Each structure stands twice: as C-alpha cells, then as structure tokens.
Amino acid sequence: MGRTQMSAAILHSVFREETFGASKHDSDNEKRVLQKRYWALVIGSPRRPKGTISAPLRKVVVDDGKSDRITVFEHNNTILSSQRAITEYRVIKTSTHGNIIVTLVSKSDFGIAYPLMLSDLNAGFTWLELSPLTGRKHQLRVHCAEVLGTPIVGDYKYGWQAHRRLQNLAESDLRKNSNEKVAKENMLPFGLNMDSGSISEKHLRLHLHCREMILPNVSQVLRNPKSFTDDDLSKLKSLEIVAPLPSYMQKSWDILNS
After folding, report:
1. What's the pTM?
2. Architecture of domain 5-168+187-256
3. Integer Rg of the chain from CA
4. How far apart are CA 162 and CA 198, in angstroms?
5. Where do the Pseudouridine synthase RsuA/RluA-like domain residues begin and end (predicted)?
6. Residue ranges of the domains in the chain?
C-alpha cells in the first residue's frame, strides 16, 4: 500500500495497532488509531440489538491434522493476551423473508461447543454491523456463529449445520413486487461470475464485507517524516473510506427489501 519506505512504515504502524491495541484501549474506540466496520448478513437474529462480545479464541486441529478451525476458548483463567478477541455489534435491519426455521444440535467433537439453536427461530435474516477491536483470525465469523448463534450467510466452515437446513429464497417470487429489472449476468473470463452467490442461489458466498475504514491521514506525517512517532498517529485528522457492497451482497440486500 505504501509507495515509499516511510509511507509503508507508517501504514504498518496503523494496521499493527488493530491487533495489539485492544490490550491497551479495550473497547474505547475514540482512542483507536484504526477503526473498521464490517457488514454481515447472518441467519437468525441476535437476542439484543447491540452489544460487545468479549470471547477469547483458540485454534484446534481437526481431521487428523489435515485442517484447523478457530473456536471460543472458555477457560478464562488461562487466557493469553494473544487469544483475546473483542467485537462490537449492532443490528442494521432484520428481515423475516423465508420464515427460516433452523435448529442446531449440540456437538462436542474436537472440544468445540456449538449453540443448541439459533438465537431466534423463525427470525429470517439480519444485517449486522461488526466492529472488531482486535484482529484475530476468523474473529467475526466465530463470534457470530458461536457467541451470537447467528452464522454468517455463506460461512460453511462455522455455520454448516444452519446452511444444511436453509432454504434458498426463490428470487422470481420475491421480485414480483419489485421494480428491479433483471439483467443477464455478466460472465467474466475463466467462468468467474462476481454477481453470483446471493441468497437467491444454491451456492452462497460469504456475506461479510469491510464497509467502512477510519484511519489517520498519513499524508500529514509525510510532510515532516523526521518528527514522526507512533504516538502521533492518534493526533492526526482521520480519513473515512466507505466501500459499496459487492454485487452479490447488494443483490441479497435488494431481495430482502423487496
């Protein structure tokens, strides 16, 4: 991302803060140099419209060492700082389209505890805004699936049981009351189709997207790089970057709003 050695070093300091900063600032967003907000479409609905998840994570090996997965670590008395994981969340919108009924069974394979059921049966889908205060591997996916009980749409690794019972929404039926004109999907080279994967299709793509990023305006530092220190980052004016939803997520949004 940085075009010079100095700009690369500054950006490294910014992004490094997300991983290690939570131990210093915890959930105080005002003091955080880098803030990221994700949008996710989940199956079901959290019991509360907003909250803070503080659930440490650990990696477990499965399939005789052939693969691994991340799970919530419940032994609070032996938590390492590298295992701490904190996520803030809030509900953006809930849709009852599809009247989805999903029940999960409890498992103890590999020491992994699954929720007994979705937090709110018949809740359909929910759009969440997720703000990670730490940067652990698969943090948002695991916190949604194992803590909130609402797996992210398209996350077969951590929400496989929910997807087994998930009925795809019939796109043609939902569009009867919509003014949207259906255009032919633009097929990309090598058979890639970036529009596919919405909730109307059989093969769902992961509905998790970095919607907004707030970071310091490093151009101010580059004007006088010799006086730069890591502590100066929090004093800089912020840049706010907003990214539109990918086409398949936008399609899911439009379908649920039809």
Report:
1. 0.73
2. 2-Layer Sandwich (3.30)
3. 20
4. 16
5. 30-145
6. 5-168+187-256
